[in-house]
């Protein structure tokens, strides 16, 4: 059971729900909010079901294609295993830093490339923020992240034993970033992402051309590249979402089909 990501997803989710009950930031925000059912669906689908489905599909492709990934230059990258010489804790930290920077880059692309933004819009359809928002995203976004991260991460070759702890850590961090908790980690807010920093990422207003605060774990990337926005005179945005959100579909099936329909009609 302790080796199951689904088990830890439930543990982390329950813990974040409890933290919101004990230390609520926006006290007038009700737990029984609109679209709660949708977000529980996204939690299960994106947190478990789609990963299982994607693994099965890739397995079938591998079988049907006769080990289609068995390509010389791909194997050469995979065999480098840059991190394998280090202790597990060092591997964990280095892999987390490298992966997080690449995810910051991909997240940036989701906002800057118009057709990717149509996929990412579902995450920004959140208008009441709590921990459940962490898993509100289109399944195509998972494919985009994994596709763009696969080759850069391949030569790192970390020990498989760090992968589950890393997944649990990143999930917990993402839950906290979306939680209704007033945390900003004080002087470390320019290095570590937090609920207060990430809330401004969901501001309806873009304070830079493509948006702000793209970090997953380390807000250091936003600090370094000039996309960190954390005003000192206000704690939270006036309204969450994006321009034109009133035209975005509200039903779950329509939201799944939205990117495809948009691409076909443009």
What can you see in these coordinates?
The protein has helices spanning 5-22, 36-64, 72-78, 88-112, 114-120, 139-153, 163-178, 195-201, 220-225, 252-265. The chain contains 10 helices and no strands. It is mainly α. The N and C termini lie far apart (47 Å).
Distance from first to last alpha carbon: 47 Å
Q: Determine the structural class based on helices, strands and strand pairing.
A: mainly alpha
Number of domains: 1
Tertiary shape: globular
Question: How many helices in DSSP terms?
Answer: 10
Query: On the 0-100 scale, what is the average pLDDT?
Result: 90
C-alpha-based Rg, rounded: 19 Å
Strand content: under 5%
Give the proportion of residues in helices: 40-55%
Order of helices and strands: HHHHHHHHHH
Largest sheet: none
**Can you tell me the residue ranges where pLDDT is under 50 for at least 5 consecutive residues?**
none
Compute the number of strand runs.
0
């Amino acid at each position: 059971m302790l080796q199951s990501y689904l088990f830890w997803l439930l543990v982390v989710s329950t813990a974040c729900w409890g933290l919101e009950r004990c230390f609520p930031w926006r006290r007038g925000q009700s737990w029984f909010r609109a679209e709660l059912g949708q977000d529980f669906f996204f939690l299960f689908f994106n947190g478990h079901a789609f990963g299982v489905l994607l693994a099965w599909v890739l397995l079938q492709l591998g079988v049907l294609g006769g080990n289609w990934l068995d390509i010389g230059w791909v194997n050469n990258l995979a065999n480098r295993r840059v991190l394998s010489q280090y202790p597990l804790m060092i591997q964990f930290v280095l892999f987390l830093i490298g992966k997080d920077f690449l995810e910051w880059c991909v997240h940036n692309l989701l906002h800057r490339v118009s057709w990717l933004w149509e996929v990412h819009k579902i995450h920004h359809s959140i208008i009441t923020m709590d921990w459940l928002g962490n898993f509100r995203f289109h399944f195509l976004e998972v494919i985009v992240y994994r596709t763009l991260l696969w080759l850069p991460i391949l030569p790192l070759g970390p020990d498989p034993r760090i992968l589950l702890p890393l997944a649990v850590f990143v999930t917990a961090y993402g839950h906290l970033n979306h939680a209704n908790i007033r945390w900003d980690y004080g002087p470390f807010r320019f290095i570590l992402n937090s609920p207060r920093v990430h809330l401004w990422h969901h501001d309806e207003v873009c304070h830079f051309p493509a948006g702000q605060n793209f970090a997953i774990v380390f807000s250091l990337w936003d600090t370094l590249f000039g996309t960190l926005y954390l005003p000192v005179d206000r704690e939270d945005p006036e309204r969450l979402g994006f321009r034109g959100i009133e035209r975005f579909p509200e039903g779950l099936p329509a939201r799944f089909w939205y990117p495809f329909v948009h691409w076909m009609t443009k």
